[in-house]
Protein 1
Amino acid sequence: MSCNKEKIDMIYKSIENLLNQTLKATYIILTLSIDEFPTKEKELPNSIIDLSKTFLKFKIKWIKNNINDYKKITVLDDYPKDVIIIVNEEIKYPEWFINEIYNEYVQYDRQCAIKYTISKENDYSIDTDALLLKKEFMGKYYDEFIKEIIGLYPANQYITYLSYVFAIYLNGYRIRRNHKLEMLPLNIFNNTSNSTLNNNFSNKLYEFNECFEVLKKEIYKRYKISYFEMLDAPIIVTMTTYPAREESAVIMLEHFKKQTLKPDLITVWLSETEYPKDIIPSHLKRFVDEGYIELHWTPLNTYGSKRFEVMKLFNNAFVISVDDDFYYPESYVETLYSNMILTNKICIYNSDYDEFKKYKLETKRSGKNDSLYVHIYSGLIGFPPFTFPIQIFDERYLKIRDKYYVTHEEIWIFSGLLENDEKIHSIDDIEFNFNKYFIENSQNIGLYKIHSKHHVTEYMIARMVSKFNLIEKFKKLHPEFNVYNNIKYHKKLNKHRNRIKY
C-alpha cells in the first residue's frame, strides 16, 4: 500500500484493518516518498510510528519516486518470488479479504486476481481496489517497459497502473476478476461530499483516458501490437486434414457449424506435399466460398504440428484445436473458451490426467485438475494468448521432433510446456469418449492403441526429457519415474520383441 501526505492521518485505520485479517500477511508494507516526507518518520503521525514498533509485520519503505502506483509495485524488487497484494489505502476490507484473494490465486495457479472499481458510494469514483501479482507475471516487461515509461511520463498517475496491467497480459497472463469481491460495497474511510466525488470522477476519467492514449502509442511503437488486439483476443480454431480423411473432414466442418459459441476464424492447414499450394481442394471449396474456413499451406506433413503453425500467426489469440474425425459436442468451443478465461491456463477437454508409476504411464479419471499432460490430445486443447510454447519452432526442437516424434507430436509440444513450467487444466466432469464421437469410417490406424500397448509413450517421454535436458524438472513432477531406467527397460523390451519376431 501507499499514501500521500494529505491522507497520512487516516491510513492508521487501513493498516489496523489489514493486521486483523483471518489470513495474516507475512508483511504489510507502507511505501512512502522521501520527496513528500523529507525528514521521514519525524513527519509521520504517532499512530503510524506506534504500529511499526508494535507489529513486526508492519514495515515502512522509503523511495524517491512519488508516483502512487509506482510506489506500491517497487515492493516487487524486494520480494521478487513472493505474492504481492496491492491494496487501496482508503478501503476497509472485510476480514476475509486476504484469504479470499489468495485462495483465488492458489486455485487458479499463475493467476492475477484483480478488482476494477467504478463503484458507487453516494456517487462514483475510479480506483483499483485490489491487485494480486508476482514479478514473474510481468516477465522482462517489468524492467524493459514499466520503469522506462514511468521515467518518460512521470506526471501521468495512471501510466504505472496501466503499464503493469499491460505487461501482465503481454507476458501471457490473463487477469481474473474476483466476482465475490466485486460485489462488495466499498467502505471508504473518509466521508466525501457528492460534489467532490463528482469532480473527482470527472478529473480521474480525463486523466485516465489521457494516459491510456499515451500508453497505446508506446505499446504499438515498441511491440507492434495494439492494446485492444492484445486484450480483445480473437478465438481461432485450427485443424489439419489429409486425403484419406476428405470425407470425414467435410462431415466434421458441417457439424461444427452447430457450435454455441462461434469462433472468429477457422484455419485449416494442408501439406504442400498432398495439396498443391493455393489450389483449393474441391471438397473444401464451398466452406472457403462461404467464408467459413481459411486455408493455409505448409511444407510440413506431420499430423500434429501442421495445425500448430497457426501459432506463428495468432500467438496472441485464444487458439482451440480440433481434429477432422470427430463430431464435437456443440458446447465444445464455449466450454474450452470459458475455462481458459477463468483459469488462464491451457485447457484440455477431458477430466482425466496422466501419472507416471515406475515404467508405466497411468491415466487417472479424477482427483487432479491441474497437471502436465503427456497425452494432450492435439484435437482437444485450447491455448490462451501467449501460452503456447512458441520456442518449439526453434531449430533445435524441430531437429529432435523430426528425428523422434513424427508419430507422436504431442511429446514435442510437451517438451516446451515442461521447459516453460506450464500446467494444463483438465475441465471438470468431462469424459471425452473417443469411440462415441468418432466420425464413421474415419479411423484407418489407431496410433493411441499402439502407443499404449507397447508403452511407446513412456519411452518417448523418457527420451524427450533426456534430449532436452529436462530431467530435473520432470523428476519434480514425477519422482517415481526414473528416466534412465525407463530407457534401458524399453531397449531390453525391444530386443526381446525382435527375438520373438524373428
Protein 2
Amino acid sequence: YAEELLAKPSGDFELGTDPETGRQIVARDGRYGPYVTEILPEGTPKTGKNAVKPRTASLFKSMSLDTVTLEDALKLMSLPRVVGTDAEGVEITAQNGRYGPYLKKGTDSRSLESEDQLFSITLEQALAIYAQPKQRGRAAAKPPLKELGTDPVSERPVVVKDGRFGPYVTDGETNATLRRDDDVETITPERGYELLAEKRAKGPAKKTAKKATAKKTAAKKAPAKKTAAKKTAAKKTTAAKKTTAKKTTTAKKTAAAAKSAASAEAE
C-alpha cells in the first residue's frame, strides 16, 4: 500500500479526516524531511490579509511516512502545546523546532531531552528546568519562531527569528523586519518572501560618513593653497620693492655725480 501511495504524482500518504475540521490529513516527504499537513478546501485564500495557512508539523525522528497514523498527525499538528504559566503569569509552551524539541517562556528557550516530552512534560517539570541556570560554554542557537519554507529566489529556507529590534524573517543572507501589521503566528510564507524581496530591491545601505569626511578634508586643504599663493605674492612684492629701491638709489647716486662733475668744470 505504501508503494502505491509513493507512486502517486502527489506523493501524499492519505491518513484520514480530522473529525473537528473535516479536512483531509496527509503525510508528505518534503525537502527538509517528512511532515504532515491538512488539505484546505478549494477557494481558500492563500494570500492577502485573509490568507489561511494549513497546519503543518514535522514528523518525529522515531516516525516514518509508512507508519505514521492519523492520531499521530493530529497530535503533531496540535503543537505548540501550552504547558502552563509561571508565578508571573508568563506562558510556557512545548514546541518542536528544526533543531529539536524545546520549551519556550517569553524569549527564554530550554532544550528538551526527547520528543516524547512535548506531550508529557508537566508544569512542575518545566518550572524545574527553568529554575536551573543555563549551561555555560557554547551557547545554543535560539530556535526559530516559525518556519516558512523555501524562498523561490534564493532557494534557501526562510524562518522567523526574534531579533534585538523585534521579529524578522531571514533566509540566512537577507534579513527583513516584520511590519506593524505582520504577526508571527499568522504570517504566511508568501508574505515572508515578499518582505525579503522588498529588502533585496532596496539594496545595501549607502555609506555616507566616509564621503562627508573626505569632503571636509578637501575643504580644509583648500586654504593651504591660498596661503601659499599669498606667501608667493608677498615675496614677489618684497622683491619688487627691493628692486625699485635699488634703482632709485642708483639713479640718485648718478645724478649727484653728474652735478659734482658740472660744478668742477665751472670752477
Protein 3
Amino acid sequence: MSWSVSRDLDSRSYSPDSKIPHRIQFAPMWSDAAKRIIDIILSTIGLLLLIPLFLVLACVIRWDSRGPIIFRQTRRGRGGRPFEILKFRTMTVLENGATIEQAKPQDPRITRVGRLLRKTSLDELPQLINVLRGEMSLVGPRPHAIAHDEYYGRLIEGYDIRQRVKPGLTGWAQINGSRGPTPELSDMAQRVRLDSWYVENRSLSLDVIIITKTVLGAAWGRGAL
C-alpha cells in the first residue's frame, strides 16, 4: 500500500495555517536571486555572531563523548545533487545516510548533550555553512537521508517535488508541526504535502514568515528545524 500526495493542493484554497493568506502568488524569476542574496547576508551574519556559541558547544560535545564535533552526512539537494550536510554531533553512532535508522526520543545512541541540542535545534546551526556555500537555503524542504529519499520516493507520489528547490534550514512543514521522526508513512506523506505547497507557493514574504516563526519557536524551546 502506498500513500499518494494529494493533487488538490490548490494555491487558492489550501493553507494549513489560517494566518497565512490563502492566495499566494508564484515566485517571480528575480525572487530566486533575491533569496540567494538574503541567504548569503543572513548566514554570514549568523555565523559571525554564533562563533562564541559554536566554540562552547564544540568543547561541551568533545567533553561529553568521544567522536568528531561535526557530523557529516551525504544528502540530496536541488535537482537531486548530493552534498554533505553539517550538524553538531548528537549521537555515538555515525551513519553515512546510505542505510540509516531514525532516532527515537529515548534512543540510546543520543548523547547527554545531544538530547539538549536536539531539543533546542542547536545541532542544526552548522548548516549555516551549507547555506553560505549555496548547497542549502535558509528556507526550504528539509533534506532527508539518501536512504529515506529512495524509500519514500517509491511509496509517496510526488515526493521528488521537494527537490525542485534548495533544501532549507527550516521550512513550511516544520513550522506547521511536521518535524522529527516519521514513524508512520502517513506522517511523511503529510510532510510532503506541506513541502509541495511551499514549492508551488514560495515567495520572499512567505520566507520571512517562516523564519520569524522558526526563531520564535526556538526562543520558546520548541524548535522548528
